[in-house]
Structure formats: C-alpha cells, structure tokens
Amino acid sequence: MDTEKETSKDLWEEAYAQRGERDAEFSTMSGVPIKPLYTPEDVEGDYDEKLGYPGQYPYTRGVYPNMYRGRLWTVRQFAGFGSAAETNERFRYLIDHGQNGLSIAFDMPTLMGLDSDSPLSLGEVGTEGVAVDSLEDMEKLFEGIDMGEISTSMTINAPAHVLLAMYVVAAEKQGVGPEQLTGTNQNDILKEYIAQKEWLFPPEPSMQVFKDMLVYATEHMPRWNTVSISGYHIREAGSTAAQELAFTLSDGFAYVEAGIEAGLDVDDFAPRLSFFFNSHIDFFEEICKFRAARRIWATVMKEKYGARDEKSLLMRFHTQTAGVSLTAQEPYNNVARTAFEALAAILGGTQSLHTNSFDEALALPTEEAVRVAVRTQQIAALETGATNTIDPLGGSYFVEALTDELERQAYDYFRQIDEMGGVVRAIENGFQMGEIAEASARYQRETENGTRKIVNVNIYEPKDESDVETHRIDPAVSEGQLNRLKDLKERRDNERVEECLEAVKRACREGENTMYPTIEAVRAYATVGEICSAMQEVYGTYRETPVI
Amino acid sequence: MADTIRVVVAKVGLDGHDRGAKIIARALRDAGMEVIYTGLHQTPEQVVEATIQEDADAIGVSILSGAHMTLLPRIVDLLKENDAEDVLVFCGGTIPKQDIPKLKEAGVGEVFTPGTPTRKAVEYLQGELVSS
Predict the structure, then answer these.
(1) How many CB atoms are closer than 10 A to CB A384?
(2) How confident is the model at residue A432 (pLDDT cuts 50, 70, 90)?
(3) Which of A58, A107, B24, B128 is most buried, with most CB under 10 Å away?
(4) What burial class does residue A260 get, using C-beta atoms within 10 Å of its C-beta: 0-12 exposed, 13-18 middle, 19+ buried?
(5) Is the distance from CB of A91 to CB of A103 less than 8 angstroms?
(6) Alpha carbon of A9 to those of A12, A26, A37, A154: distances in Å?
(7) Which helix (H) or strand (E) holds A277?
(8) Helix count (H) and strand count (E) of chain B?
(9) Which residues on A lie below 8 Å from B17 (Cβ)?
(10) At B97, which CATH number?
(11) Domain interval for residue B67
(12) pLDDT tens across A6-53, in order?
C-alpha cells in the first residue's frame, strides 16, 4: 500500500514538473509560500485537539455549535456623516432595509477628543463621520430609535469613556437602564498607537482609563462589550495577515492582564471581550487567519490566564472587508473584490460583517453603493449555499496547513513582544509600527514591479477613467454644528460644567474610577473636548516619533 | 534649483491613515530625493513653516479625511503669503474625481488617487523640478 502511494506521488511530481508553471508569484499576499498541492502529509496533530467540534474547545471550527444554521451573522454597516440628524436618517434607512445592528462612524475631531470649534477641527467637522460634541448630539442620533432594542457598535477609542457615558445618559433619558444596553465600543487604544493614530494620552494613563471602563461596564452593563480588539486598522496600515493576527491578539492579552490587575476575575470580564478583523483579498489566507485566531485565543486564555468559563475562551468577532483593497480605477470592480472578501469572512465564521461600498476609494459611500454592499451579504447568505454547513473548509489539507502556519507566525511574534517586556514597551520601542512599515513597503514594491497583480492598477489598466457619483457632505453641516455648539455653551449651567470637570481631574489625579465623574460631566452637557482636555491636563498628551 | 530635490511629505488634518504618506516618503527617498516627513495631525501652518525652514522644493500632502477642499487651498495661500509660491504642492488620498479640477485651479500641481504607482509621483516631481 505504502509503495503504491509513493508511486502515485512520484508520478504526480514528475508530471507536474513536466507541465511547468505559468509565470506568477505563488505565495499569499503576506508572503507565505504556497505549494502546488497539499496532501494528508501536510496536516499534523490530532483532530480533537486541534479542531474539535464547533462550539467546543479550541473552537477552530466556530464558536457556536450550530453557527449559520442557527442564525446568520449580523449585517452591520458602519455609517455616520454630517450632523447627528442626518446620520439618524441614514440609520433609519438601514433599519428599514433589514439591518439589525447600528455602527456609528464619528468624525475625526470626535475621534481625537476635540470639539467642532477647535482650530484643529477645521474642514473635518462631519466629513468622515458624524460630529458629536455633547450629549445633545447623542440624543439626536437616537431619536425615534429604541436604545433598549437596537445593538450599537461605536467606533471610538481615545475618548471612548466620554461617548459611552453619553450613550448611557441618552438611554437613561429614553427610560432604558445601562443593564439593558447591548453593543460594543471599540475602545482599543493599543492599536491606535500601532496603526490608527487617534490618541489622547500616553499609553500608561490610557490603560488606566481602559481599566476604569472595564470595571464600570463589568458592574453595570452586563450586555455591553467594553472593547473590540481590532486588527482591522493594523491591516489597513499595511501589515501582513500574520501581523494582524499577532498584534491584535497580543493587544487582547494586554487587556486581559489589565483587567486582572484592576482586581477583576478573568471570567467576570473576558466573556464580553470581542474582536474586529479585516478580511483582505487573499481568500484562503484570510479564512485561515480567522480559524487560527479562535484557536490561539482559546488556548492562551485557558492555559495562561486560567479562564474557566467557556465564554471567556470563545472568540467572537466582527469583520470588515478591506478598504485598502479597493481601487479608485474602475470602481465597480470593487463589488467583486468585496464579495470575495465577504465570503472569506463567512467561511471564517464571523459573527457580524461590514461590506465596503464600491466607491469608498473615492469618498464616503452613496446610498446606492451602500445598498449594493448590503445586498452582497444577503446574496452570500441566502443564494450561495455557503451557509449550509459549518466550517465547510475544515479538513482541507491546504486550509489546515495554512492555519497552522499563521498560528506559528503569531506565536513567534508573541515571543518577541514578551522579550521586549510586553505590548506597551514594544509600542514605546516602535516595534509593531516598524514591522508594519516594512511589510507595507514590501507589498508596494511587489505591486510596482509587477510580481503582485492588481487588476486595473498594474494590469488591464483602464484606458478611460470611469467616473461614479460620490457622496457629498454639505458644507453647511460644519456651520450648523458650530452654531448649535455655541448655543449649547450659552444655554447650559456653566458653573455646573466647571464643577464636573474639576471632579474629572480629581479622579485622574487620585486614581479613582474616571467613568463616574465623566457620566456626571456628560449629564451637565460638558463637551467631548472639555472633558478630554481636562484629563490631558493631568495625564499629558501623546506624541509619536514617526517611523518611515 | 539645487541638485537634489527636497520634499516635505505632510499629513494634514486629523486622520491617522499614514500608510500612503510613508510609502510615498520611502519611494521619493529611494529615488534619491531628500524627504522630510512631518508626522501626523499637522496644521497647514505647521506644514508651510516646515517647508520654508527646510527650504523644500515641493510639498506632498497625504489626506484621507475628506478635508482636502479646505486644507489644500489653505496651504497654497499660506505659501503665497510667505513668498514661497514657487514650492510645488501635490497631493494624494481619497479624493473624488470632481474635486481634482477644483484643487488644480486652487494651485495644487497634481492629484494622485489610490492605486497610483509611486513611480508616477517620482516622475512627476522630476519632470516638474529637474528640467527647470
């Protein structure tokens, strides 16, 4: 029998060599070399130990026993632009078109903890997301939407504590208590230093604020995910799949350690940790990344942090298709790119999904482009049959071998980060940023010298540049927002605001939980900018040394 | 014109998307230019000040926040105010096609949209700055 097998393999190898290969790069976009064929020889280890059953340790095949046969993933399109009133309208449009979760994009000033009237906010108010200065804007954002019913994801990091406080108080005004609120705030400050670069304080005090929120939410918001540990931005900044996997999970472990340091039991908060990944264009590499992520998380949580609750071990994640893979040339082709990326996320077992719109290399999406993106998910869910069975690619020699390879690369990075003294120290050394810059430069070289092909960019370049309608932000948005803010600052009880800001500073100085005074400040209509700059007076401001 | 082209690569506005800026900075440096990268979150005033101090020939602005129609004309105006209108301003990022003619009218030399090979920016700068 053995000799017979040898013979067929030899025969195939000979035949393969005779036929030859076309002139192409046979490696993943992250540079993992790919063999022409995978066989049982490429798969190591025991089925039960490495794969097991869905909903069972180590969750390689999925976090739930029934996966999409029980319930499909949540269609969660990220949206936000202009004023709170305009975004509220888009939210209602999305809800009417079958979306079941909201995802708020804030404008750049809000992400940086600045008010619309800051000189640094010039030209940025309401352009890339919705402008939220005070509780008043949050109230408008959810007008006519039952905050006790809808699940909301807020992409906010450095000033996340302020926006969470606003969400809690806005819900309270609708008669909904914090214990009823479901959703997530991104609140992943470590990846801000690594990739997205929207920060306020240096890493150490940022981790203190993180602990405050984690403790608050663990006590008062049992259905809220305090952090969405994000690889998305790391990948968009140019990292490889393995770097996205490794840096995201090492950030996740740093948050677990922060929770334990804050005196929480790992099983009290770990079940509420969730993740956010990118789904890039290299189909199989992405699927394997998701599978490897689940296995690593479960293993380390159990072995290293002693988690016993099953829910602490299973990695739930949101996925967004890769914005960076979209091209400005022939934008309609991006529908195809996004569809492949969405399918990879689905085959990788995502819990929710955002599909990018085809016009996003040019501007924020139009309503029509958003509809196509939502329909892409619905077609994948209902027409392709990809949801009929759980982890359909499990057991593929290639998929299992590549899953192992990504896992191995991730552990290699964990070791390097540990040797540097942990994630914060590695960030201070510029380690992750340097690795990403290298990977990004390599990828650019490969596309420019043509070893890696991108349709309509370095091959089949369009003769005439096609054009699509793009979404326009009304310049009046900024003016309207500034007027409302000015009006608010005159109307509110400014003495009360001052008292509240003093209380926030006191909590920062004395190491008390900053969430409580932040909630009081928000209730008094103190603005994002006022609260953040009060905290910066105590904590200081972060400056990056750029790594080219 | 000095022998070596000096370029300030600038990130204006509040967005932190610096992959493009870093790639262009590397590509220009690899093409033999002297590159000064400003880092993130710069105001037009800071960028123009750096350009004048560094005696740069060009400013390459990377912007993905949608604030290009406000911030780029502001840079061009500040250069004029500082008698530095000979500095070439070019930009790249998520910029809708309809805005390109308006930016050029406002004094921006060239606009590179996503997916443009870096050699196009290198060739553009060499064409504009070396032949003169």
Answers:
(1) 12
(2) very high
(3) A107
(4) middle
(5) no
(6) 5, 21, 11, 53
(7) strand A273-279
(8) 5, 5
(9) 236-237
(10) 3.40.50.280
(11) 6-129
(12) 689 999 999 999 998 998 889 999 999 999 999 999 999 999 999 999
- Is the predicted pLDDT of residue B132 greater than 70, yes or no? no
- This prediction has a pTM of 0.92
The label of the residue with tokens 């700059």 reads A533
Instruction: Please report whether residue B35 resides in a domain.
Output: yes
Q: What is the mean pLDDT of chain A?
A: 94
Secondary structure (3-state) at A318: strand
B13, B35, B114 member nearest A123 (Cβ): B13
Tally the domains of chain B: 1
- A309, two tokens: 């609750």
ipTM above 0.85, yes or no: no
pLDDT at A2 over 60: no
CB pairs < 8 Å spanning A and B = 118
Q: CA–CA separation, A348 vs A342, rounded Å? A: 10
Burial class (CB in 10 A: 0-12, 13-18, 19+), A11: exposed
Residue type, A134: S
Residue B96 contacts A where some CB pair is shorter than 8 Å: yes
CA-CA distance, A515 to A13, in Å (whole number)?
A: 64
**B43 contact A CB<8A:** yes
Place of tokens 């071990």: A313
Asked whether A95 and A145 are in contact (CB, 8 A), the reply is: yes
Q: Which among A133, A126, A88 has a CA at the least distance from the CA of A474? A: A126
Name the residue ranges covered by the structural domains of chain A: 47-76+186-448
Partnered with residue A151 across adjacent β-strands are: A101, A182
Q: Is residue B1 part of a domain?
A: no
B17·A328 Cβ contact <8 A: no
CA A452 distance to own-chain centroid:
26
Shortest Cα distance from B107 to chain A (angstroms)?
Answer: 18
Task: Say if the Cβ atoms of B71 and A123 lie within 8 Å.
Answer: yes
pLDDT value at residue A97: 79
Q: What is the assigned CATH class of domain A47-76+186-448?
A: alpha beta
| Residue at B82 is within a domain | yes
Peptide bond into B101 cis (omega under 30): no
CB contact under 8 A, B13 and A124: yes
In total, chain B counts a number of residues equal to 132
